[in-house]
Amino acid sequence: MPPEPRVADLRDEASALLRPLADLAAPVAPDSTPPWDQLVRIREHELDAAAGCAASLAFEGDFDGWRAAFARKRLGLAVLQRLAKGATADPTTIAADVLDQEVRTSTSSLASWLATLGSGGAAAVTREAAWFATATRRGIRSWPPPRGTTFGTRFAWDLPGRALRLEASADAVIWETRDVLVVVSGEDDGDGERRDLAWPALVAALDTGKLPASVTRLDLVSGERRRVPVTDDVLDTALTAAARAVEATMAVRFTAPPLTSPGRWCRRCRGRDVCPDVRV
């Protein structure tokens, strides 16, 4: 199905903006899949790093293991899926069953990590997953959600001609109304909040060929719920963030890391033990 006219224009705009910045990425033939080992991935993490200290991208590596916050979201989304299908047990009971099933039946790295937890650790992850599911369910305007609503949806769009991919995740997508929900629990400033709202809107549009109607950002810590319609200004915010992240990521991978920019993000940087400018 061809994209909506506005999204067709948006794809052209994104390509014209990002292609010169990604010129050093591996070439990709038309209608071909980029080679995984040469793929440059631009995700929420790259956007945040480029907006804070782009030099921190030089210290990135492979996934270094599960943590409670990661497991909370993965298991919490599975709890939401069951609730949306009509499960009547309380979220904590469902979360415990989801965790048990993951350990017993899955060969994933998450299952391996969960299996190392003692009873106390498993109980804590169960409580966190139930909390995530409960808070997210409250962030959805109607429950049960409309038929076809999905949880834990990932969007991706490959830049034509180069091995560069934009990726975004949405905790819930109500396809019937084209509403997207993202759940955060961070310390974003105003710019970070705008990126949280704009990024999934852009990548969802580029991926699906359809423009979302709105994006809602739910902060688990403060309880704040903010919903914005997807306008040209929202998309421009995302395109600007994408350009900054692509430029920084390409510099780190192919030329030289950008200058450091110390700040509150230093405490989460993998290079904090070796960076001369670290601020803690």
Question: What descriptive keywords fit this protein?
Answer:
280 residues, six-stranded mixed beta sheet, 8 helices, globular
Overview of the molecule:
By secondary structure, the chain is of the alpha/beta class. The chain has a domain at 68-133. It is 44% helix and 14% strand. The chain contains eight helices and six strands; from the N terminus they run αβαααααβββαββα. It has helices spanning 5-18, 44-51, 68-84, 91-105, 109-115, 119-139, 190-208, 232-254; strands spanning 40-42, 150-158, 164-174, 179-184, 214-219, 225-229. Strands 1, 2, 3, 4, 5 and 6 form a six-stranded mixed beta sheet that branches. Strand 4 (179-184), helix 7 (190-208) and strand 5 (214-219) form a beta-alpha-beta unit. The protein is globular, with a radius of gyration of 20 Å. The model has no long low-confidence stretch (mean pLDDT 90).
Q: What is the topological layout?
A:
Elements: H1 5-18, E1 40-42, H2 44-51, H3 68-84, H4 91-105, H5 109-115, H6 119-139, E2 150-158, E3 164-174, E4 179-184, H7 190-208, E5 214-219, E6 225-229, H8 232-254
Parallel strand pairs: 1-3, 4-5
Antiparallel strand pairs: 2-3, 3-4, 5-6
